Amino acid sequence: MAQDSQTAPSSSEQPATEIVVSAIRATIQDSIETKRETTAIVDSLSADDIGDIPALSVGQAIQTITGATTHREKGDASEIALRGLGPFLSNSTFNGREASNGSGDRSVNFNQFPSELINKITIYKSQQANLIEGGVAGTIELGTVRPLDYKRRRIQMEGKVNYNPYQDRVYGDTGLGWRGTISLIDQFSLGGLGDIGVSIGYQRQRTANPEETLAGSSTWSACDDSVDVLTGNCRNVTNAQVNDGTPFYIVPNAMTYRQISENDQRDAVFGAIQWRPSPTVEINLDVEYSDRSFAENRSDLTFSEMRLGLKNREVDPAGFLRYVEGMTSLESNSTLTERSEEYLGGGLEIAVEASDRLRLVADVSYSDTTRLDRSRSTRLRTDPLDIYGNRTPVGNQRVAYTYDARDSFAPVFTIDPRFDLNDWSLFSDDARLRRDERERSNTIWAGRLDASYELSGLISALHAGVRYSHQTYNDYTDRVEMTQGDRNVDRDANLACRTRFPQRDYLKDAPGDQISSWATFDPLCLFDAYLGTEDPGPNDDLRAITNTDVLEQVWAGYVMADYEGDIGSLPVRGNVGVRVVRTEVESNGLRSALDIVNNGDGTIRLVETGDFETVTIKHDTTRVLPSANMIFELKPELLLRAAAYRAMSRPAPSALSAGRSIQLDDGTAFTDVADAIRNIQAAGSPRLEPLMSWNGDLALEWYPNRDTILSTTVYYKRFSGGFQPVRINEDFVLGGQQVNIPVSQTRNSDDKSTVYGLELTAATRFSFLPAPLDGLGAKVSYNYAKSNFKSHDILLGDIYDPVTEEVEPGIIPPANLSGYSKHVLSAQAYYDIGPVSLQGIYNYRSQYYQDFVGGNSQLRYVGDNQTFDLRASLDVMPGVSLRVEALNIFNEPKVTYMPVVGSTRQYHYYGSKYFIGLRVKL
User: What is the topology classification, in CATH, of domain 23-534+541-921?
Assistant: First the structure.
């Protein structure tokens, strides 16, 4: 182990007082030591003390680790990408076990776990045979403290108050929130029954996550640019027509200004018991529970007919509109969305030292997440007459507007000045009420048995094990919808349910002269006014063709050998092994005839008849995953690492759905049957197989002292396979007539692709500077990746005919790997001296493609984004510290594009967040 470069005291001198290193410096020291001692190529963030990881959330903590970055939702870090590769290519475990989530993918929901109750995060960049399979980019391991190993009693209490300036703009809100955490760790002697340790932690959080956004629909069409269409929707063009020379432009079905006021609460309990009844037996039991919910009030102004009457177009060479004039109905949509997500997980591990060489470990675990989303939304639309029957200033249901995206990522809408957006009486027609409910349930039962046998000689240990997991994923969607056209009823509801626009200074931080307010309504009041109840409840029959029912069973076994020796005078150590994995998938989907329902406003929708038939699709795969890791000790402080391995990443459970989806975008409906059937897609593809890759890593690491590391890693990944959009004809009964409809879905391809990458890490404390500057330190990490992977748009990209194997070339360029960023940078500067600790953290991630959970959707890109956070703490007395944090202090927005870069689909403003807290340790 590297030591601090300080002169040791002579034997005649008094022993030096032990220096206790704490705060950020200690965390970086622990991380450096973990990286140095682990056989695989890893990066980590660890703290000796519970709650000392310097971050407000687990996601924020992870993005300070070399090569790791996050995707932001509601202004906080959520999904993790490793080495510039998306969460699909990573594997996440909690205390060495798979964890369920409510998103439908395989990521750990990091927002469920309080960072104050996590004390170690390790990212395995290279694979080894005893790791749970699933991480082409790497494996993220979260760990909680083991109370006997902690070796001391600790009671810790922490309270934080947070202030969000954006929430303070919401009328009637102070912008304040809070979180409180308490934890206890203790150990007891049971006499003849050995020793037992207990830990328990609890956190309650009440926060707010306001948001301002402009959002486009999730389906974009290619329209003929050779003619102006003065009435009706623009004419869709096919890939073949464009390839034959027809000019085109890309347009969404609708665009929406959205103001969001939200309240978020979470209660979490973590507990563990560690019992050693004898020196050779250890039993560990841990349980984690989290209950998170939020209520989100949305006020929307929707331009619902973005394909209608488009003229004077200015089209970017990439195909998207930079300027256009059109006519559209305007809608005031009000929505209350409520989510509850409950997580329960844990496991029992029994470790036995069967002899002085043989160790056996058995582990069983359970992880369950249930997420329920319920929304009640209302629509009031423009009409030639107001609610009193008087002709409106524009005298038309549709209002003229201009769309101008020539100057920035934030397009500017300008409407006919005769139309007053804040006049409630102008939103007078086509009332629609929707109650949507979606429940996602993900459950994992798993068990494993591992054996380790120590040897002497070149092979220092042998390891072998088996693992089984049983995972289910179920997803249902239910919709209750009502429309009506009685103007008198509309008038009474309109008058009774008007609300003040919810906030001041809406979108004042966005570029251009943005719309700042519009007429808004109380959605629950409208439900009560129209239906006599605030909640009509779900349908009696929750079956639907969109539903998902997936069972995945995995059997895995491995053997691995540790070795340690010398090549000449060069010490070398490492491991070599192989893992064999069999995956079996069974996916059930429903099929139904479809009725055509007239909405009463000139549009139609498709609904199931209620007569269902179950379709079951089964598929299995077997994969062999060899791996080898080698460490050469060139000098005591200089290591050379090499790794070669085969890795796999499975499709998300939701991507294995056998259901079918009719794409209905908020604020839009179909104008005719042909328009409707173009939007029938497979909800998933049960026969999708894991994405496989051969991988190589080479790293050089220098550890001159405990505070310093300089490392560089080059890596290579060769993917054997990709994903292709295909259209497969399926028979549907539509309005009583059987029709053959091409259904868009995804299959595996034989495409080959590569990723080359470079990782750099540098960290040091400037101890050579004179006091008090010797408390300064810094850490910088950078990842560069180059990939030629291709992900095609499901509608506008290359389309494969599964019968003839011919390719219809796409009209927009493909994306890369989901989550792939070419550049990822994290830089930290800190100052630790005495009772003061200061830290600044900068994170940058270049543009990346982010697919929608479940797949079979169009391309979506997230633009370059950066954040800067500040943290400070002051030890006011022994065991008591004051902490201050500021997040996203430059209020960087998140911008997404679809289906080509530059075509703004959505931008979000979240604002900054400020926290102040007090921690007490006893």
Answer: Maltoporin; Chain A (2.40.170)
